[in-house]
Amino acid sequence: MPVPERDQIVRYADYSDSRYDAVDGGFPDPPGLAAEADAAPTMTPAMTSLTTTLPLALLDETLAELSAGRERVEDVIGAEPVSVGWPSSAADGPWLEIPSPDKRFRDSTGDVRTLQSALPDGGLTDTLDRLELVRLLGIGLQALHTAEMVTGGVSLAAYAFTLEPRPALCLLRPDLLRRIGGEQLVADAGTWGRRFDEDRYEFAVVTHQLLISGRPDARIQIMDEVRVAGLRRGQCQRLEGLWSRASREPGTRPQVTEWMEVLLP
After folding, report:
1. Exposure b/e, 111-139, CB count within 10 A at least 16 = b
2. Per the domain annotation, does 131 fall within a domain?
3. What range defines the domain where residue 240 resides?
4. What does pTM read for this prediction?
5. CATH code for the domain of 117
6. DSSP codes of every residue in 186-205
7. Could you give phi then psi for residue 99, rounded to 5 degrees?
8. What is the pLDDT of residues 142-162, one digit of tens each?
9. Which residues of the chain have a pLDDT value below 50?
10. What is the count of structural domains for the chain?
């Protein structure tokens, strides 16, 4: 009986011992491929331009001060996923350029995903994720303070976040960073003359919003025993004490390092 065509054995030539002469420079690419590669755009971060009122010489000096502190900030942050898009001067005038948050920090519509979306009403129901975001916020702020820099405000709207592939934070207004005693890059009356104490108080408010109240407009108010998923009872008691101190008069508020002693695993 003849074997059906689909079941017939097909024997292929054995090329396992074949050898080919080397081609100098390798095999050539198809025509036009190299030209296409040369013409392909280089991927660079999108930049946002801002006006500065500083004279050019003073602008360069102020940016140099921030740049001098940048290495210190990055040393403290280390491998932690906290992004600070450092401002730079534009080549064509009195402009500042800051990197725009990349797509990791944007939702499906392209809008920046701020920490307000990390509240339960914003869609993030996992307290452990919020605890990790608070920890990253503290690491970033501690790094800036170590380099003698203050922010333009610590708030839910001041930071973007992502949870993929792991929780990460991005400072949205690095142009408002200022060295203590230094000039301000952009005119913003609400941030002029800020000191560490304002950052410390606002950090306490944001941690309370993320871990306790769940409301973007809430102030610090300790009503009952503090309980935070992922933290032991002793850690929660220490947090309660820190929030209590943060609510008192300026100059007595806890430093970020004190919070990190409780929050770090």
Report:
1. ebbbbbbbbeeeebeebebbbbbbbbbbb
2. yes
3. 45-263
4. 0.79
5. 1.10.510.10
6. S--TTTTT--HHHHHHHHHH
7. -65, 135
8. 999 999 999 989 999 999 999
9. 3-44
10. 1
